[in-house]
From TrEMBL:
Organism, as annotated: Spirosoma rhododendri
Protein name: Aldo/keto reductase
GO terms, molecular function: oxidoreductase activity, acting on the CH-OH group of donors, NAD or NADP as acceptor
Domain of life of the source: Bacteria
Residues of the NADP-dependent oxidoreductase domain: 22-258
Keywords: NADP, Oxidoreductase
InterPro entries reported in the protein's UniProt record: AKR (IPR020471), Aldo/ket_reductase_CS (IPR018170), NAD(P)_OxRdtase_dom_sf (IPR036812), NADP_OxRdtase_dom (IPR023210)
Residues at the catalytic site: 51 (proton donor)
Signal peptide: none
CDD domains: AKR_AKR1-5-like
Membership in a protein family: Belongs to the aldo/keto reductase family.
Amino acid sequence: MENKFVTLNNGVEMPLLGLGVYAPNHNSEVQQAVEWALEAGCRLIDTASIYGNEVEVADAIQASGLSETDVFITTKVWNTDQGYEQTLRAFDRSAAKLRRDVVDLYLIHWPVKQYRHDTWRALEQLYTDGRIRAIGVSNHYQKHLDELLSQAVVVPAVNQIEFSPYCYRPDVLTYCRDKGIQVEGYAPLARGKKQSDPRLIAIAERHHKSTFQVLIRWSLQQGVVTIPKSVHRERIQANFDVFDFTLSADEMTELNTFYDNTRIADDPDTLD
């Protein structure tokens, strides 16, 4: 059976496939979406303080009857909460909303130049104190990681970046692998922008799968933790029905050529 977990650089096990709950204007639907995902076998939920739905995530897990240790929760510190003391306070607020004494994974949402070292220091403190099982970053490319690692005591366990064949950065992937940092990919479906790509449709038809399932499968076969987002029950179920087929080496190679810098979020390389 295919392994559905990855082991992070500190020994913590993290599910390979999860649910992203960035859903602006849909917070009323988030609790239901999380309940459906848990029903479909999902055990990784990715939220963030800026999403404003940490309470809904906690309510859904409680309603599911699953224990706290069954569901891996990620949340993130937002840009305006960065800095040492501010991050400690932001974490307390998130943990209270999630109703967790210990959060599985806490990430710096974006690299904010003037605060990122102090923010990381706060994450290291929370990790040392046993409040977080693993710490990491989001939207960090090589220049941000080089700078962080020059002062970090703890190497990030995870780097969450936008990741699809159309936003494929093998250089970031290789860099993180070399440093022992697990890459996690958001927006794997490119928000549906590429579902009519004939090359993608051809691959999907060969496997009797949807284009979305092919995109998720491609990401998983890259060894990347993958968090497709949906608030629709059928789609959530389909997004988790990706362990019964394998893309061939040739198909992976072809998908790797689809890069055209299609992005849902900002390009970290253009930010400072």
